[in-house]
C-alpha cells in the first residue's frame, strides 16, 4: 500500500511535508522521529481525521482506516461497553465473545465490568486498543499505543497487533518513540525530521546502517 | 423581623389558599419553561461544541450575549409581540401562564446552550477524534458526546430551574402578576412587600429558598449515585 503525499501547515508554518511512501503489506511500518517532527500529524492525515492543506490531492482511494489517537477517550461506561461500541455488523453474542477475547489477550478481562473512566493510563490504553481491534481495517494507524503501558502489557499489545495484521493482511502505521519497539515490530521505518521524511527503508538496514547524518545522530542519542 | 418570620412559618404550615395558589402558578410556569429550555438547549449547545464550521465563533458570541439578555427587555419584546398591537395578538396570550413560559424559554435557553457548549467543547475534540478513529458515524459520535455530558445536563437543568423560579422582570411584564392567575412567588414578594405585607413576602421567600435547596440536594444525590 502506498501512502500519498501529505502537506500540512498552520499559520504559514509547514509542520509536515510528506512526499509519500510505501507501507509493507506483510508487516508494520514504524514512524520514528523527535518531538515535533510531524509523526502525529502524519498519523492524523493518514487516518483522515485531519485535513491536508488546500491543493494537496489527499487520498481519494483511502482504505478503511482504524486510528488509535495518542489519548484515546474512555467513554463513561463499562470497559466492555466501550469495546462493544466498535462491534458494528456483529451479532450480540459474537461481539461479546470477541470483546472478551481481546480484553483477555491484553490482560484486562477482569476489569470488563468496571467503569472505563476509573482505569489507569496503561489500562485505558489497553482498552482503547481492544476497542479498535474489534473491526477489520485496511490500514491501522497507531499513535504511540503503548506509551502508557508497562513492559508486559507492551509485549501483549505488540503480539496482538502482529496477530491482527497477519490475520487481516492490513497495513500498519505505528508511531513510536521506542527504537527497541521499532526493531521488534517493524519491517519498514519512516524517519521524520522537522516535518520532512528524512529517510525510509527496511527496518533492519535503516536502524543499523543509516544513510543520513540526522538519523545516525538520532540513533546514537537513543543508544545512550 | 423575627415576628414576620414567625408569622411566615405559621402561614406556610397553615396551608393558606393564596399561598398555595402562588406556589402552584410558580411551578406551572417554572417546570415547563425549564424543561423546554433544557430540551432545546442541550442538543443545540452540544451541537455547537461538536461541529466545526465557519461562523461557529460568532454564534457562540451571540449566544453569550443572549445569556445576559435583561429580563425586562425580554418582557418588553414579548409584550410588543403579543399585546393588542403586536403581530401575535390573535393568540390572546397576554397575561397568561403560556406567555410567561415563552418569555422564560427565551431567557433561559441561551443559558442552557452556553452551559452545555462550554462543557462539551472541552471533551468534544477527543470524543470526535476517538469516534472517527473507530470509524463511527458523525451521528453516533454526537450521541456519544451527549452521553458524556449527561452529568452536565443535571447542572444545566438546575441552572434553568433556578433562573425560572427566581425571574421577576419578564414574567411581571407579560403576566401582570394577577392574583389567582399569573402571580408567581417573585412577583408576589415584590407586590406584598410594596403593600407592607412582609409576612407573606417572607413566607414566599422561605419557600423559594426551600424549593431551591430541595432541588439542589436531589440533583446532587442523583449525580453522586449515577457517577459511581
What is the name of the CATH class of chain A? Answer: Alpha Beta
* H and E order of chain A: EEEEEHEHHHEHEHEEHH
DSSP strand (E) fraction of chain B?
A: under 5%
- What is the third-level CATH name, the topology of chain A? Rossmann fold
CATH homology group of chain A: P-loop containing nucleotide triphosphate hydrolases
Total DSSP E strands of chain A:
10
Count of discrete alpha- or pi-helical segments spanning 4 or more residues of chain B: 10
Global geometry of chain B? globular
Helical content of chain A stands at 25-40%
- Work out the number of β strands of chain B: 0
Oligomer: heterodimer
And the CATH topology of chain B? MetI-like fold
Q: How far from one another are the termini of chain A?
A: 35 Å
Strand order of the largest sheet of chain A: 6-7-8-5-9-10
Greatest interface = A-B, 25 and 14 residues
CATH architecture annotation of chain B: Orthogonal Bundle
Outline of chain A, from the CA principal axes? globular
The count of domains of chain B is: 1
Question: What's the helical proportion of residues of chain B?
Answer: over 70%
The stretches of 5 or more residues of chain A where confidence is low (pLDDT under 50) are none
Give an account of the 3D structure.
The complex is a heterodimer of chains A (about 220) and B (about 230). By secondary structure, chain A is an alpha/beta fold. Chain A has helices at about 40-45, 80-85, 90-105, 120-130, 150-170, 180-185, 205, 215-224; strands at about 1-5, 5-10, 15-20, 20, 30-35, 65-70, 140-145, 170-175, 185-195, 195-200. Chain A has a single domain, classed as Rossmann fold (3-Layer(aba) Sandwich). In chain A, the strands form three sheets. A six-stranded mixed beta sheet of chain A has the order 6-7-8-5-9-10, with helices on both faces. The relative contact order of chain B is 0.16. Chain B has one domain (about 25-225): MetI-like fold (Orthogonal Bundle), CATH 1.10.3720.10. By secondary structure, chain B is an all-alpha fold. Chain B is globular and about 65 Å long. The interface of A and B includes residues 48, 66 and 86 of A.
Amino acid at each position: 500500500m502506498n501512502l500519498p503525499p501529505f502537506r500540512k501547515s498552520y499559520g504559514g508554518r509547514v509542520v509536515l511535508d510528506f512526499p509519500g511512501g510505501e507501507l509493507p503489506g506483510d508487516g508494520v511500518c514504524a514512524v520514528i522521529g523527535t518531538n515535533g517532527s510531524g509523526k502525529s500529524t502524519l498519523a492524523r492525515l493518514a487516518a483522515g481525521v485531519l485535513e491536508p492543506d488546500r491543493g494537496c490531492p489527499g487520498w481519494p482511494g483511502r482504505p478503511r482506516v482504524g486510528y488509535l489517537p495518542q489519548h484515546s477517550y474512555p467513554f463513561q461506561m463499562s470497559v466492555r461497553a466501550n469495546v462493544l461500541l466498535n462491534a458494528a455488523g456483529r451479532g450480540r453474542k459474537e461481539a461479546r465473545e470477541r470483546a472478551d477475547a481481546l480484553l483477555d489477550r491484553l490482560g484486562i478481562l477482569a476489569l470488563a465490568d468496571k467503569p472505563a473512566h476509573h482505569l489507569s493510563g496503561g489500562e485505558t490504553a489497553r482498552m482503547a486498543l481492544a476497542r479498535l481491534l474489534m473491526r477489520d481495517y485496511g490500514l491501522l494507524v497507531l499513535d504511540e499505543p503503548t506509551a502508557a503501558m508497562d513492559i508486559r502489557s507492551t509485549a501483549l499489545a505488540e503480539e496482538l497487533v502482529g496477530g491482527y495484521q497477519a490475520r487481516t493482511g492490513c497495513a500498519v502505521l505505528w508511531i513510536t518513540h521506542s527504537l527497541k519497539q521499532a526493531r521488534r515490530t517493524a519491517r519498514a521505518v519512516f524517519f521524520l525530521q522537522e516535518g520532512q521524511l528524512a529517510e525510509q527503508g527496511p527496518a533492519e538496514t535503516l536502524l543499523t546502517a543509516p544513510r543520513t547524518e540526522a538519523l545516525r545522530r538520532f540513533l546514537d542519542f537513543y543508544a545512550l | 423581623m423575627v415576628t414576620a418570620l414567625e408569622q411566615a412559618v405559621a402561614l406556610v404550615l397553615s396551608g393558606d389558599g393564596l399561598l398555595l395558589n402562588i406556589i402552584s402558578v410558580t411551578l406551572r410556569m417554572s417546570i415547563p419553561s425549564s424543561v423546554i429550555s433544557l430540551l432545546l438547549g442541550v442538543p443545540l449547545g452540544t451541537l455547537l461544541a461538536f461541529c466545526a464550521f465557519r461562523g461557529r465563533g460568532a454564534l457562540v458570541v451571540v449566544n453569550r450575549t443572549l445569556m445576559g439578555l435583561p429580563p425586562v427587555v425580554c418582557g418588553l419584546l414579548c409584550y410588543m409581540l403579543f399585546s393588542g398591537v403586536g403581530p401575535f395578538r390573535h393568540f390572546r396570550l397576554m397575561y397568561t401562564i403560556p406567555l410567561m413560559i415563552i418569555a422564560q424559554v427565551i431567557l433561559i435557553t441561551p443559558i442552557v446552550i452556553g452551559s452545555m457548549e462550554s462543557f462539551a467543547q472541552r471533551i468534544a475534540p477527543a470524543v470526535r477524534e476517538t469516534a472517527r478513529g473507530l470509524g463511527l458515524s458523525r451521528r453516533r459520535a454526537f450521541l456519544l458526546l451527549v452521553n458524556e455530558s449527561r452529568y452536565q445536563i443535571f447542572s444545566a437543568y438546575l441552572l434553568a430551574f433556578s433562573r425560572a423560579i427566581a425571574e421577576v422582570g419578564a414574567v411581571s411584564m407579560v403576566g401582570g402578576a394577577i392574583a389567582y392567575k399569573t402571580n408567581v412567588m417573585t412577583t408576589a414578594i415584590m407586590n406584598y412587600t410594596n403593600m407592607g405585607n412582609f409576612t407573606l413576602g417572607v413566607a414566599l421567600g422561605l419557600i423559594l429558598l426551600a424549593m431551591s435547596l430541595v432541588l439542589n440536594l436531589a440533583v446532587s444525590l442523583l449525580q453522586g449515585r449515577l457517577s459511581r
